[in-house]
Every structure is written in structure tokens, then in C-alpha cells.
Amino acid sequence: xxxLSKSGPIGIFDSGYGGLxxxxxxxxxxxxYDYVYLGDNARVPYGTRSFETVYNYTKQCxxxxxxxxxxxxxxxxxxxxxxxxxxxxxxxxxxGKKVLGVIRPTTEIVHNFxxxxxxxxxxxxxxxxxxxxKIEIHKFNPEIEVFQHDCPFWVPLVENNExxxxxxxxxxxxxxxxxLQQSDQIDTxxxxxxxxxxxxxxxxxxxxxxxxxxxQGPIVANSLKEYLSRHQEIETLCSxxxxxxxxxxDDPRDFESKAKIFFGQPIAASHISV
Length: 274
Known about the structure:
It is a single chain. By secondary structure, the chain is α/β, with parallel strands linked by helices. It has two domains: 10-101 and 218-271, Rossmann fold, CATH 3.40.50; 104-216, Rossmann fold. It has helices at 19-29, 51-67, 78-83, 85-92, 103-109, 125-130, 132-140, 154-159, 166-180, 200-205, 217-230, 232-235, 252-263, and strands at residues 10-14, 35-39, 72-75, 98-100, 118-123, 145-150, 188-191, 212-214, 244-248, 269-271. The strands form two sheets. A six-stranded parallel beta sheet has the order 4-3-1-2-9-10, sandwiched between helices. A four-stranded parallel beta sheet has the order 6-5-7-8, sandwiched between helices. Helix 1 (19-29) crosses helix 11 and helix 5 crosses helix 7.
């Protein structure tokens, strides 16, 4: 690590609002740190875009968070973690800066939830196509069989607060049915997009009782806590005043009204250009 680095907030990035569901859990578990959240709402959704586009958008936002003083950035977005994280880690990081994703923390512990070794993944088209979950789960647990299904309508439903509408019920029921048709032994479903926990009441309605549904927020928060305790040289670069800042690439008033749903409390946001 670069000893000249000043301490700064932990950056949390997402393509839109979904990352707030992870940020809420992180801030609950680790309230002492300062945080900056950046939602690229002007360019959401990421899930249907090409690898190159997601990489470029993610890199721009990560570097904006570096400009705002962050030394550690969490990609609280599965599509960005699947399509951009590794390239940024290998090619782009300035000295003293770190970027972490949400896929590895989830795949490291998913074996704790399944008895049948058959796991379902619900994710964006981009995350499914990347095969990141299959690759990472097999790295840790080759005996687990992974069944994936993409849900392209779920993020727009959540972003537009159409959470308990007829449309939401239609698409959630349809997508769950199509996932579970792949195997009658799936006993665990990972919500592999940070927007999806907002649909949890609807998801639970159409999921058989014997199937566990895994949301990533608590998993990522615990993983970050462990990471900071293992890497004191990074932990010391994370400032601790309990302050929060929120930025969006779109309309901050619109962001504030919707962010409350995800974050569970009112927030004040500012516009930022990347």
C-alpha cells in the first residue's frame, strides 16, 4: 500500500438503487466508517449491456469515487462484479486503491445453505452470460450443480417502484417457474442482483417453502468486516466519522424519493457527472 495515501470514505457503487440494499447492511454492521454511495442511475440498467460498455461505465464510476477520496470501493452490483471487476483489478488500479465485488463473498459460503447440492441463480442477463457464479461456485465447491435464469424485467420493475404490482407478480412467477423447471432438486436460490431483495415478498409467494432464498446484503457486509480485520493496512485508510454521502448521475430529487425504499431511511443526494 502507498503510505502517502490519506484516509477516506469507503465507496459503494451500483448501476442504480440496488446497491443501497447492500449498503444498508454494511452501514448497519460497520457504522463507524465514512461512506460515499454512487448510483449511475442515468445509465441503468447495466444487465443488458455489453462487457465493454459495463467495464467502461464501471471504471468511470470507480475512478470518480477515487477522486472523492475513497481508497476502497465495493462494487455493490453483480453485473459490474461479473463483467468489470477482474479487469479493473488487474489493469487499472492506482497504487493504494482496492476494489472488491459481491460475487466472491456469496459463492464462498453458498455451500452452507444447500443439502441437495443444486443451487438456482436468479440474475441479470449480463451476469448469467458471464457464467461468473458457475465458475466461482465450482472453484470452491465442484460438487454443486448450478442452474441459472435471467430476469431482465426485474431491475426496471424495482427501479420504477413497481414492486407489488400485477406486472411484478407476473414476471416473478414466470421467472421462478422457468428456473425451477430446470431441476426439481433446487433447494437454494441466490438473488444474484442487488435490486432483487426488494421483490422478496413477491418472490417468497411463488417459491416453495422448502427452498431457501439468499439475499447478498448480510453476506457482503460480513465479508467486508472480515476483510478489514485481515487487512489492517487498508482498514487504516478508511476514515471513521460515521458520515454518509450519496451521489447519483441522474436527478437527485428522484434518487432521494426512491432511495428511501432501499435504504430504509431518508437520505440527501447530490448530482455528479462521471
